[in-house]
Amino acid sequence: MTRRFGAFAAALCALALLGATRPSGLDDVLAHRHWSYPDYTRVVVELSGPVTLKGEPHLLPPMSDKGARLYVDLEGVWVGTAYKEGVRVADGLLDRFRMGQNTRHDTRIVLDLETHARHRILTLTHPDRLVIDVYGARHGDAAEGSGPNPLPPRLRPVQTVVLDPGHGGRDPGAMGVGGLREKDVTLRLARSLRPKLEALGFRVVMTRDDDRTIDLEERTAIAEASGGDLFVSLHANASRRRGAHGIETYYPDANHERHTLRVAARENGVSHSQLNALQRTLAKLRVSEVSPQSRHLAERVQRQLVGGLPDRYRPVADLGVKKGPFYVLFLSDMPSVLVESGFVSNPIEAKRLGDDGYLDAVAAGIATAVAEHRGAQTPVTAQTRP
Q: I need a labelling partner for 129 at 20 to 30 A (CA). Which of 6, 276, 328, 350 fits?
C-alpha cells in the first residue's frame, strides 16, 4: 500500500514536470463542500460529468508517522495540480482531503483521517457528485457509540426526530392552485408538528426553520449529525390532473413500484429516465437494515392521516404506503419516511393545505404515529458489520 502512494506522489511530480498536459475528453471538479458535526463528517465533490469509480475504495491503516487514509479513484477526471495543497478540515475526525492526478486519465481523492469507525461512499446525479461520509468519535472524545462498530441510529430507541420541510428558498417545490407553494406548506406543517412531538417527549431537529435553499446533502448531513433516530420528510403532491387527490406515504427500498416514479422524479429533481442511475446506487446500499422500520412507521403515518383526521376533512383518498427511490431518504442512515400530505394542484386539497387547521390536524396525526412507532419498538441486538 505504501508503494501505491509513492507511485501517486511520483505521478504528481511527473505531471508537474510535463506541464500537466491535459488529455481531451476528461471531466472537471466543479466544486467541493464539507460539513463537520460531532462524530460525523461529509465530503461532497461535484463533477462536470457522471462519476465513475475506478476499482474499490481503499482504507489504509494508521502508520507510525500518519493516521489512517481513505482513498478512491475517479475515472476520466482531470484536476492536474490544482488541489495539491489539499483542503484543510481539521475537525478531529478528518484532517484534510486531497485531490490529485493519479494517472493522466484518473484523479485520486485521499482523505487523511484522524480517527475512523466506518464510512460509506455514494455516487449521485443532477448534479453529478461523489459523497463520502466518515463516522467516528473525534480525537480526545469518548463519545457514546465510538469504536470499531458504533451503534447506528436505527438500532437505538427513538429519542430524536428529524423533520425535513421539503424544498425552500430558490426551490418552491410544486406550484398549486391560487399560487400555493409547496415550500410554504411544508414549513408551516413542520412548525406545527415540532411542538406536538416535543410535548410527547421527543427531541426535534429541523433541517430548516425558515425559507432558505438547502441541498439534499446538507439536509441529510444535519440529520446524521444530530444523532437522529427517525427522519420525516414533509411534502405536498401535485399532478397535471386537477382531479388527483389523496395522501400517500413513502419509505426507502431498493425496489420501487412503477406508479411511484412520477413522484420520485419530481422530488429528486430528475426525469423518469434518470432514475435508473439512482436505482443502481441505491441497490448497493444496505437498505434492508432500515427498510422494515421505515415501512412500519410509514404504515402508522398513513393510517393516522387517512383514518384519524377530523370529520370535516374526510373522506380522505388513501393512496397507500409505497416504496420508492428518494435521495433524501437514502442519504440518511436511519429509518425514514416521506409524507405527501395532499395535492396543491387539486382545488379542494389546495384550500385545505393553505389552512392552518388542516395542517394542525395532519401534524397531530404524524405525531401520534411517531409515538406509536416508539411504543412498538422492541430491543434490537447490534450485530457486527462484516
A: 6
